[in-house]
Amino acid sequence: MEDLQEISNLKITICKVIIDKKKPLNPITTSLNVEDYKNKSLVLVDDVLSSGTTLIYGIKHFLDVPLKKFKTAVLVNRNHKKYPVKADFKGISLSTSIKEHIQVEFSEKETIAYLV
Hints:
Layout: H1 2-7, E1 17-18, E2 29-30, H2 34-37, E3 41-49, H3 53-62, E4 69-77, E5 89-93, E6 102-106, E7 111-115
Parallel strand pairs: 3-4, 4-5
Antiparallel strand pairs: 1-2, 6-7
C-alpha cells in the first residue's frame, strides 16, 4: 500500500472481505461499515482466480452497495473458471491443469506463489 501512496494522492483504505469458502451463501462481512465505501471507488483483490467462486461471491456482496467505480484484481489468474467472472487487473496468468494448486504466501518482505 505504501507503494501506491508514493505515486498517488488518493486516500487508500484496506477492507477485509470475509467469505466462508465452504459455504459461500452464508452472509459475507467486511472489516468496514458499508458507509465507509458507499459511493467510493473499490478494487476487490483476490490471491488466486481459479474457479471464480470467491471472486463472484465477493462481487455479489458489493452489488447491493452504490459504488462510484468497481474493479477486480488477482495476483494469479488460472483460467479454470466455473463462473463468468474476470479480473480487470492480473499479476500473472498461468496455464495449469485443473488438478494443480497455486498457493500464495505473504510476508513483510515478499509475496510468493507456489505451484503445488
